[in-house]
Amino acid sequence: MRYVRRFSRTERVLHWVNAIGFFLLLATGLILYLPSLAADVGDRPTIKDIHFWGGIGWVAALVLVALLGDRRGLLRTAREIDGFSKQDLNWLRRRRPSEQGRFNAGQKLNASLTAAYLVLFFVSGMLLWAGERDTRFRFASTVILHDGLLYASLALLVGHLYLAVIHPATRHALRGMVTGTVREDWAHAHHPRWDVSD
Ligand code: HEM
Q: What distance in angstroms lies between residue 146's CA and the mean position of ligand 1's atoms?
């Protein structure tokens, strides 16, 4: 069986650092959010510190991976994800023919929303932190935004995990994010416009 390279090492490290950081913040954020969990854990100030510094560490680690890794490759990938074509729109509307390149329209949307959520989580989290120290940074809507992002990102995560781990036609993609390569026949079937020699 022949395999082709789908994700570089930098892309894979970025993905897994993002996933680990997100789950840490999700777990600690839920403890802060749900009174029953907070009561079980008890030590709210420590959880709050882990959450805040975890958030700073998460964003710093992602920036470091991007700066120290294959920046040019990441930029090329970002441009691919940013290029939303008529083919992509057709694919989303399930109109044929709607051949997809290295990323299909769903993957492009997932990556773009994930990046947007990251920025908004960071900005609203920093405002929550600053607002506790200085009333000039205290806005009623900050916590609504931070909590709203929790629900929106959870909905995206459920869809993402279903396609990556459970759905038979798409779960082979997980191999690409773990080892870097996918089967050539799978690449042709799912991403016919992707030039695998690139
Ligand atoms: C990106 C960096 C992030 C920073 C700097 C940050 C910071 C904060 C801060 C300062 C608070 C207020 C804690 C308190 O006073 O109780 C908070 C609450 C919270 N955070 Fe984050 N956060 C970040 C990312 C995330 C992520 C990724 C999630 C979920 C996936 C999340 C979920 C929550 C939840 C659910 C709360 C509780 C809000 C409430 O009490 O209604 N945060 N965060």
A: 6
The reply to whether 165 falls in a domain is yes
For residue 152, what are the domain limits? 3-190
**pTM, to two decimals:** 0.93
Residue 111 is encoded by which pair of tokens?
Answer: 């990556």
pLDDT per residue as tens digits for the range 14-40: 999 999 999 999 999 999 999 888 778
Residue with tokens 């989290």: 125
User: Residue 196: inside a domain, yes or no?
Assistant: no
How many C-beta neighbours within 10 Å does residue 25 have? 21
122 lines ligand 1 (CB under 6 A): yes
Ranges assigned E (strand) in 86-197: 181-183
Residue 96 in this model has a pLDDT that exceeds 80: no
The CA 47 to ligand 1 mean position distance, Å, reads: 10
- Total domains, the chain: 1
Per-residue pLDDT reduced to its tens digit, 114-141: 999 999 999 999 999 999 999 999 999 9
CATH number at residue 54: 1.20.950.20
| Helix residue ranges per DSSP H, the chain | 9-33, 35-41, 44-68, 71-82, 86-92, 105-133, 140-161, 173-179, 184-190
143, part of any domain? yes
User: Is there a domain that residue 198 lies in?
Assistant: no
